[in-house]
What we know:
The chain is mostly helical.
Amino acid sequence: MTAYQRLEAQFRRLGLLEEAISLLQWDAATIMPGGGASGRAEQLAALRLFAHELLTAPEIPDLLAAAEAEMAALDPWRQANLREMRRRWWHQAAVPGALVAARSRACSECEMRWRRARAADDFPALLPAFERVLRLTREVAAAKAAALDLSPYEALVDQYEPGLDVATIDRVFADLVRFLPDLVEEALSRQRARPLAPPPGPFPAAAQRRAAMRLMERIGFDFAQGRLDESAHPFCGGTPDDVRITTRWEESDFVQGLMAVLHETGHALYKRGLPAAWRWQPVGAARGMAVHESQSLLLEMQVCRSRAFLDFAAPLLQAELGGAWDADWLYRRCTRIARSLIRVEADEVTYPLHVILRYRLERAMLADDLKPQDLPGAWAEGMAALLGVKPGNDREGCLQDIHWYDGAWGYFPTYTLGALLAAQLFAAARREIPHLDAAIAAGRFAPLLHWLGERVHGKGSLLSTAELILSATGEPLGTASFERHLRERYLA
Length: 492
């Protein structure tokens, strides 16, 4: 075997192991009994350490060097795969195995404590576990920063979106802060002129689930290779041929749970559409989380909150849920905006402001400019400044998201960058697919999925994020398409 072939064999083992870890995480978040938390933490720590050892085995650096010396003999997919192998090795080799295992245990423990603390609105009970996670995350960030020649925060961001730097994030977020507050106020003013009746519920969770599954199937989700469950926080996990979606239901308002399902369905379709020929290889993985989020937000925000989609969906939803409402009420409900407290329930206009707050707070905590015990107060002040509301308790504030407590530091910016990319991609799709809105209104999603498959899903990590965006949309990532979309939907 050549050096490159030996690397492919090693990364195949690593890919299979990572899929097993993903399914254990899904189980812990959905159906595992609470008493299994300690054992599961040890299982995940052992498997993550094993994955770390596979990727940092003594022979890997020599194999990478030998394969790179023969790069010209490789086709473009294998060249890209080797590039991604090197990047992943850099990330793993920078961190000692003992630190990997210690952080894994700390994150597993903190996540389970977060579930109890969130339910009880008890941030102080979570604080010791949270401080351990932050301390170990700083150690990881420092080690990776030294190896990758990045700032500690950028080293964490690079895990989720390769090549993304603070200068880009700051530029984009500054542009959003420039126009969003005034746009929010103008949209709210128009909305106040047309009051909306409350949801005519209740809507039983079982009926919501049936309705959501019917829409998932119509869009293109295959339940022979995936499932829908409940969890404290909606997410999409599993593997390309066994996709696991979770949501949570609110019986007083079916829109929240439904849109969370459709959001995660966008993630699932991307996962399912990744290049099968490169399964278990780095080049066959999703490009990054900004691209992943663009797929969920394209489906939820660009497509499923559009009037075209809701004209199609309203009769199906009425058949399952009943009630005296119509497509016009549903569209107005799905495009209702508010200065709300909860990120996952926020509308697309105010959502970026939720992310900007989290970006500022996590950078401050990582730099030790904000102490964990001061997080609730800083959160409340930030919400007041950016959104004009303050949480009444920590459950509505700094306890609402799982990310920091589960160890996902540097992840939040990808949500809003994904929203910008979603707007660019859907604008490009509309230009290139004849009568796309009419197809959506008729319940035909194959043209859009085919287009996304060619431009995004099937590319895996063949291209850099910047190259992928330019190739798919004809322009680099920016805020113009997103701003135009918001103005057309909410102010036109």
